[in-house]
Amino acid sequence: MITTEKQKDSEYLYKGAVINLRLDTAILPDGKTAKREVIEHPGGVGVLPVTEDGDVLLVRQFRYPYMKETLEIPAGKRDKAGDGDPLTCGKRELKEETGATAENYIPLGTLYPSPGYTDEVIYMYAATELTYGEAQPDEDEFINLVKIPLEEAVKLVLSGEIPDSKTQVAILKAEILKNDGKLG
After folding, report:
1. Cα–Cα–Cα angle for 166, 61, 94, rounded to 5 degrees
2. Of 37, 139, 152, 161, catalytic
3. What is the pLDDT of residues 10-48, one digit of tens each?
4. pTM of the model
C-alpha cells in the first residue's frame, strides 16, 4: 500500500528566529487533499557527557512552555550558518553549558521529537574523556550543572522525573552501550 503524500502548495503563516510555521496542502495516496501544519526548525544537537567514574553531567534549567525546571543533556539549536556538521554544534553546546570538552564523541543516533508536525531532527552524542573548564552559557540561559551516576539517571528516566525525550533516549542508549562495553 502506498502511503506517500505529495505537497500541492504551501503558505508561511509565521517566520521567526527559532521556528517557521507553514500551512501545506498535501495530496494523499488516494488523490484527496488534506491540510498539514508544519513547524520548520533548524534542528538541534544534544551531548551526554560521561565522566571517567561513570557519572553523567546534566543541566537543570527552566523551560518556559512547561513553566518548570527540567533536567536535560546539554543541547542546543543548530545555527543555519556554521553548523553543517552536527558534531560542531554539539561540541559548542557542551563547552558553553558545562565548560567541558571531550576527546571522544560516540554517535547515539538521531531523534524526531514529534514527526506529526515538525521537521526538527536532534542529533545525539555521548562524550567521554572529558577536560573541564568554565561554562559560558548564552546570555539568556540560566542553568545549573548536575552530576549523577548514569544508573541514577536511568532510574530518573524510568520514574518519569526526566520527561525530556532527547535526554531519555541519550541516557538509555548510553546505558546499553555501557552494558555492552562500548562506552568509556
Report:
1. 60
2. 139
3. 999 999 999 999 999 999 999 999 999 999 999 999 999
4. 0.93
